[in-house]
Amino acid sequence: MLLRPAIGIGGVGDPASAQLARLARFGLGGSVAGGRQWVSWIRIDDFVDLLYRSITDTEMKGLYHLTSPNPVRNAAFMAAYRHATGRKFGLPAPRLVTRIGATLLGSDPALAITGRRCVPARLLEEGYRFAGDDIYDAVQRAVHPSR
Length: 147
Description:
The chain is 44% helix and 12% strand. The protein is of the alpha/beta class. The chain has a single domain (2-140), classed as NAD(P)-binding Rossmann-like Domain (Rossmann fold, 3-Layer(aba) Sandwich). The strands form three sheets. Strands 1-5 form a two-stranded parallel sheet. It has a two-stranded parallel sheet with strand order 2-4.
């Protein structure tokens, strides 16, 4: 079996949300490289549930995309972080600035610049019910886990 996970959102010490929330708080949470690229994501509790299922369910065979059924454009993804941090505006990051910034932060710039629109078709066909499929709710829970 092959599992292809998307960006995990939530959980204690979620590095992606911590970094994106920090950028949003400093006014840098705008669209990246135009904001039209797709972002596939998954809430951490769905990820853990699916990981457990992949270990215990002998019927799971082949490729599974571990993603929310609702991928979003980068502009909406970043808007969710601005909303969670109470920021109404975020400076957009052009491609060159993104390349430099990602490198300085120790991340691969391609993760932000190129998009992947992935839908978990097999999981949906098998009747899997996602605990979280709304990006605003997932980010809110990740940024404010005690609420």
